């Protein structure tokens, strides 16, 4: 297919890949920071309990 | 983010951007004769990203199977779970890229053959593979006990990885005439010069990027396991 | 006991249990005939040439019937505590796979021996005398694949939360390559066309490779799925 008909699909492919991958990265990082935050809270609570 | 995955991700991104540049500004446009008229095939540009995505997804499915074997070998010697996480992360990355293959494949079908879906052997093959791996996630979510879950998913990942080449072979058995372009034949690639360069750069970039995603996912799995373990300990105390 | 005797003992146990009730084979048989009738009605088979999709119809019916039997054979073992007994008995673990797999294969074949003539009569198809051998071989190759993959995956699925609901989700996508080849093989043989026979034999070669691979893999992996 020529440029004037094909460009939406080609752009769609390239943008689509980036969008999906970026969403995945953001999701994973978001969850990871959540888990890490919870971990540090838990460790702090444990240290407090051990100290008292 | 871990340092290694950050490095991999940035090299991958750079290569992918180079790939885009090469694909759109350097490679010649493919020209085909349709009814005596020369028509430029702009839609062929999809190829430079579609194929690397498909390669990465198949690669990670196979890696998932290999981790399954490693898990079972380790399981026999000493009970260790780390390969279960690796296998799970690999299959998930394979599945993520599989979704991208489906999206880009459907768009290409629309652009080149002006239908959204065609029961071409290879598109169908990919759909089957996605269903096989959907079964992997369904299986994981329906087993509660951790060691059983790990054993079952290792076994299933091995079977599924063996099924990947078999499915492709079965797809080519069909008497149906395949419409999917075959770029790589046994005799070698039918590409040269800048096209090959753009393709290889995208290939490498996509692979590195996928590995960085894999490491990220693995980090998350490890951290959440640590959290679960600590929580259990706190409850016991 | 030698390996062969151990396998035979497991098969014998399954057959005796089945002969007592006959519930599995009879329900499989009724199901396969029902499936054929439903397909013929759904696709309006009377008006179209069945030579074209007879092979497909046959295999879809067999595939769903086999799942009935696969689920049944393990639900029984699990519920009545037979599996524990089997695991505790001095049988080599991997041999349990061959015992169960051959048992499933025998039940499936018993059903098919009755169902195939009915299928051929119902849909008015003939197979030339010279092609009966290849036809039986194609059916047998398909059955071996179905029962080896099926035995492994039904052992997995019976140990999950959703139990027998899990089997189709795991089993059907894995079996699709075999299904494609089996449909091609039986379809080609039913048509009797020389050109189609060539591709039918190619499909049968694929089925043989598939069977060997999955027999070996299932045998090697069975120890990991059956009990702790």
Describe this protein's structure.
The complex is a heterotrimer of chains A (52), B (237) and C (228). Chain A has 52 residues and is mainly alpha-helical. Chain A contains 1 helix and no strands. Chain B is globular, with a radius of gyration of 21 Å. A two-stranded antiparallel sheet of chain B has the order 1-2. Chain B has a two-stranded antiparallel ribbon with strand order 3-4. Chain B has one domain (3-236). The two termini of chain B are 32 Å apart. By secondary structure, chain B is mainly alpha-helical. Chain C has one domain. Chain C is an all-alpha fold. The two termini of chain C are 24 Å apart. In chain C, 43% of the residues are buried. Classes of the chains: A mainly alpha (52), B mainly alpha (237), C mainly alpha (228). Chains in contact: A-B, B-C. The A-B interface holds A 1-3, 5-7, 9-10, 12-14, 16-17, 20-21, 24-25, 28-29, 31-32, 35-36, 38-39, 42-43, 45-46 and B 1, 9, 20, 39-43, 45-46, 49-50, 53, 96, 99-100, 103-104, 107-108, 110-112, 114, 209, 213, 216-217, 219-220, 223-224, 226-227, 230-231, 234.
Offer a quick outline of the entry.
The complex is a heterotrimer of chains A (52), B (237) and C (228). Chain A is mainly alpha-helical.
Chart the SSEs and their pairings.
The complex is a heterotrimer of chains A (52), B (237) and C (228).
Chain A: H1 3-51
Chain B: H1 3-26, E1 30-34, E2 37-41, H2 47-77, H3 82-113, H4 121-141, H5 146-173, E3 184-185, E4 188-189, H6 193-236
Chain C: H1 3-21, H2 23-42, H3 50-79, H4 82-88, H5 93-122, H6 132-158, H7 166-191, H8 194-225
Number of domains of chain C: 1
Unreliable stretches of chain C: none
Largest sheet of chain A: none
Describe the global form of chain A. rod-shaped
Strand fraction band of chain A? Answer: under 5%
Which oligomeric state applies? heterotrimer
How many distinct helices of chain A? Answer: 1
Number of strands of chain C: 0
- Shape descriptor of chain C: globular
Structural class of chain C: mainly alpha
How helical, in percent, are the residues of chain C? Answer: over 70%
Reading the helices and strands of chain A in chain order gives: H
- Derived from helix and strand composition plus strand pairing, the structural class of chain A reads mainly alpha
As a whole number of angstroms, the C-alpha radius of gyration of chain C is: 18 Å
């Amino acid at each position: 297919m020529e440029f004037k008909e094909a460009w939406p699909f080609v752009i769609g492919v390239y943008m689509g890949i980036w969008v999906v991958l970026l969403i995945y990265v953001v999701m994973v990082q978001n969850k990871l920071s959540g888990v890490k935050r919870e971990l540090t809270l838990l460790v702090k609570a444990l240290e407090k309990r051990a100290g008292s | 983010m871990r340092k290694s995955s950050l490095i991999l991700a940035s090299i991958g991104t750079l290569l992918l951007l180079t790939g885009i540049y090469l694909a759109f500004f350097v490679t010649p446009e493919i020209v085909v004769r349709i009814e005596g008229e020369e028509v430029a095939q702009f839609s062929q540009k999809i190829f430079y990203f579609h194929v690397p995505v498909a390669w990465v997804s198949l690669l990670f499915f196979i890696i998932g199977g290999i981790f399954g074997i490693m898990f079972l070998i380790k399981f026999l010697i000493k009970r260790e779970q780390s390969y279960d996480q690796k296998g799970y992360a690999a299959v998930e990355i394979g599945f993520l890229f599989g979704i991208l293959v489906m999206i880009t494949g459907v768009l290409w079908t629309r652009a080149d053959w002006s239908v959204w879906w065609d029961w071409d052997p290879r598109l169908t093959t990919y759909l089957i593979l996605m269903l096989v791996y959907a079964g992997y996630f369904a299986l994981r979510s329906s087993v509660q006990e951790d060691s059983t879950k790990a054993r079952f998913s290792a076994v299933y990942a091995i079977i599924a990885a063996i099924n990947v080449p078999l499915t492709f072979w079965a797809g080519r058995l069909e008497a149906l005439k395949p419409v999917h372009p075959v770029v790589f034949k046994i005799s070698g690639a039918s590409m040269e010069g800048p096209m090959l360069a753009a393709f290889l750069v995208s290939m490498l970039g996509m692979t590195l990027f996928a590995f960085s995603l894999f490491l990220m996912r693995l980090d998350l799995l490890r951290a959440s396991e640590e959290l679960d373990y600590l929580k259990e300990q706190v409850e016991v105390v | 006991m030698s390996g062969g005797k151990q396998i035979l003992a497991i098969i014998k146990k399954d057959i005796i249990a089945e002969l007592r009730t006959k519930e599995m084979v009879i329900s499989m048989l009724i199901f396969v005939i029902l499936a054929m009738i439903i397909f013929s009605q759904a696709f309006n088979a009377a008006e179209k040439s069945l030579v074209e999709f007879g092979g497909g119809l046959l295999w879809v019916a067999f595939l769903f019937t086999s799942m009935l039997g696969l689920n049944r054979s393990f639900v029984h073992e699990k519920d009545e505590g037979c599996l524990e007994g089997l695991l505790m008995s001095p049988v080599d673990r991997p041999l349990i796979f061959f015992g169960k797999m051959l048992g499933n294969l025998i039940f499936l074949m018993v059903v098919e021996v009755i169902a195939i003539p009915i299928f051929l009569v119902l849909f008015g198809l003939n197979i030339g005398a010279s092609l009966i051998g290849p036809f039986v071989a194609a059916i047998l190759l398909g059955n071996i694949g179905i029962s080896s993959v099926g035995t492994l995956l039904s052992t997995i699925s019976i140990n999950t939360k959703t139990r027998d609901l899990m089997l189709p989700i795991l089993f059907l996508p894995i079996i699709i390559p075999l299904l494609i080849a089996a449909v091609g093989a039986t379809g080609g043989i039913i048509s009797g066309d020389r050109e189609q026979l060539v591709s039918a034999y190619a499909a049968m070669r694929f089925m043989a490779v598939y069977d060997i691979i999955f027999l070996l893999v299932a045998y090697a992996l069975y120890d990991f799925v059956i009990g702790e």
